[in-house]
Amino acid sequence: MATVSLRNIKKTYSNGFKAIHNLNLEIEDGEMIVLVGPSGCGKSTSLRMVAGLEATSEGDLYIGDKRVNDLEPSERDIAMVFQNYALYPHMSVARNMGYGLKNQGLPRDEIRRKVEKAARVLEIEHLLDNKPKQLSGGQRQRVAMGRAIVRNPKVFLFDEPLSNLDAKLRVQMRIEIKRLQQEFATTAIYVTHDQVEAMTLADRLVVMNGGKVEQVGPPLDLYEKPETQFVAGFLGSPGMNFMPARIQGQALLVQGDHRIDLPDMAELAQWDGRDITFGVRPEHLEACSEAEADFHLKVDIIEPLGADTLLYGHLPGSDSLMIAEQPGKRRYTRGDVVPLRVDRERLHLFDAETEQRLNE
Amino acid sequence: MHDNVVFNNKVLPYFLLAPQLVITLVFFIWPAGQALYQSFLIEDAFGFSREFVWLDNFIYLFSDDEYWNSIRVTFVFSGLVAFSGMAVALLLAAMADRVIKGATTYKTLLIWPYAVAPVVAAVIWWLMFNPSIGILAFLSWTLGHQWNHYVNANEAMAVVVIASAWKQISYNFIFFLAGMQAIPRSLIEAAAIDGSGPFKRFWQIVFPLLSPIAFFLLVVNVVYAFFETFGVIHATTLGGPGNATRTLVYKVYEDGFVGLDMGSSAAQSVILMILVITLTIIQFKFIERKVQY
Ligand SMILES: Nc1ncnc2c1ncn2[C@@H]1O[C@H](COP(=O)(O)OP(=O)(O)OP(=O)(O)O)[C@@H](O)[C@H]1O
Ligand SMILES: [Mg+2]
């Protein structure tokens, strides 16, 4: 168990590509950090630098209070679970799990004991003598987890460990991973591009984009107060609605003519007349009476999900897509015009140019 | 989906197969039959008399020390060719697997020797080892050793092994390299995290995963060393000195065309034929078998 510190970490690949610009992150002991972001944003690169599989170009990397930049992966006391599991195909499950311990020179019966204990935790005892190719995807995933926990490392590293599983198994393993991580109270870094996984697993979430960190914080903080338009759009499903708008006194003119009265926000005075981007999540658009309506949504596509219904449509006189999430009990038909009201507590204003958050 | 296509023409398939069948008949089945028949005969050198002697030729062969010597030479030779050819290829492939810059050039250069005919390769090596004019012989002289493979049996063996294995390295290299590149990077990385150093990783992870390929290459190389190295031996040592490099194939030639003992030569061919068939069956069994780790 240990803290992990990344200080001014930069990574330039040998072909000159700058994959990580400047990464600063202090991970607490026992904390589960999730790195999330679109494909190619540098999540794996960051994780692999912590693992020692990729050299850092600049900056300092600490595990505990030891600087590990120049240590071999095996000397860093970490364990990693790979996307393709990376099980040794020619070894039995037991030998796969015990390989690291064997390299540490532990006596054979102690290895056996530890492997069996880990196998019991993961409910794979009956598979110990099988070869990896005789296992299902979910079982392989468990073996890969077992190989990680059996060594009792200081840090767990996960690189999209669930992305090869089907949806149901993914949910199940997600809960399992959370349970194990809490049980062992081991510091963990988890990479995913699945935002549900990210939200549910993270103690703190790191949203990355183009080799930079956009925002770090507890998942709900990021959901409620995204610092940038990118974070706002990335978290939440379906994604946030964005519309060009302009501030006029204490009101907002969305797409030219939809007027939204803003609650008392003193700081907005300075943005008077300024072009901004207005954002609201689909779940914060409420069906209301004609009188209260901020928008009228013309419904094009309806997705009834049971608990909720998603309405895809557009504002009359505009092409841009707008999504609203409504309670499932009310029925809609295509072509309906639904009056909607924006939840005043949960609207988001971003600078149109810098895409930084404006409102508190 | 189509049902199986049915050809109503009964003649056409045979017609299309004919060239292959004719070649097999004329160049394989017929000579093989001839050899089998001759192996039961004793003829005098000029073909004036022939006598049907059943298995006498075989019985004589296996009681002949010369033949046993040739068997021993063949096994030593094949073992050395297969082992050295594969070991060097494995080493080169392991290095090529790490190369990033100029990888294509490096690989192309390594593959070239395969395009060289064995005899030509042999002549090149023969020149280099030639005790009077060879550069390698000269080098060994400057190191205080008098290289002469016309006299020294071990040196003669070394020359034929090197000349034969050299060409085979390319072939082995391609297979080993392809095998290594098919091993997922993450496997090696997982092993590195598990505390296994480069050597251990190679022998405990990479090599076991290459073992099916290694076995396949072993069979191919042994077949090559057994049957395709006549030209190499003929161009370098002529089986000498004192039969030190006279392999089974070379002995067939010597006994048949030099010694004109057709019956014995034919019997030896039959034995070689049985060997080829056995090795081929092993190879086919291997290819059919699903690769097992
Ligand atoms: N060995 C390499 N050499 C050069 N560029 C690389 C190398 N590895 C990765 N990159 C580049 O670095 C960037 C970040 O890659 P990385 O693998 O960290 O992305 P990621 O966030 O994990 O994406 P994904 O979600 O697709 O796995 C990408 O643009 C990628 O093309
Ligand atoms: Mg990745």
UniProtKB/TrEMBL annotation, chain A:
SUPFAM superfamilies assigned: MOP-like, P-loop containing nucleoside triphosphate hydrolases
Example of a GO biological process term: carbohydrate transport
A single Gene Ontology CC term: ATP-binding cassette (ABC) transporter complex, substrate-binding subunit-containing
MF-aspect GO terms: ABC-type transporter activity; ATP binding; ATP hydrolysis activity
Gene3D superfamilies cross-referenced by the UniProt entry: 2.40.50.100, Nucleic acid-binding proteins, P-loop containing nucleotide triphosphate hydrolases
Keywords annotated in UniProt: ATP-binding, Cell inner membrane, Cell membrane, Membrane, Nucleotide-binding, Sugar transport, Translocase, Transport
Record-annotated ABC transporter domain positions: 4-235
Full protein name: sn-glycerol-3-phosphate import ATP-binding protein UgpC
Taxonomic source organism: Natronospirillum operosum
TrEMBL record, chain B:
Membrane topology per record: Multi-pass membrane protein
Domain (ABC transmembrane type-1): residue spans on this chain: 67-283
Gene3D superfamilies, per database record: MetI-like
PROSITE patterns according to UniProt: ABC_TM1 (PS50928)
The keyword Cytoplasm appears for this protein: no
Keywords on record: Cell inner membrane, Cell membrane, Membrane, Transmembrane, Transmembrane helix, Transport
Biological processes, Gene Ontology terms: transmembrane transport
Membrane-spanning ranges: 12-30, 75-96, 108-128, 156-178, 205-227, 266-287
Gene Ontology CC: one annotated term: plasma membrane
Subcellular location(s) per record: Cell inner membrane; Cell membrane
Keyword Transport: yes
Main location: membrane
Recorded family membership: Belongs to the binding-protein-dependent transport system permease family. UgpAE subfamily.
Name by which UniProt lists this protein: sn-glycerol-3-phosphate transport system permease protein UgpA
Organism: Natronospirillum operosum
Gene: ugpA
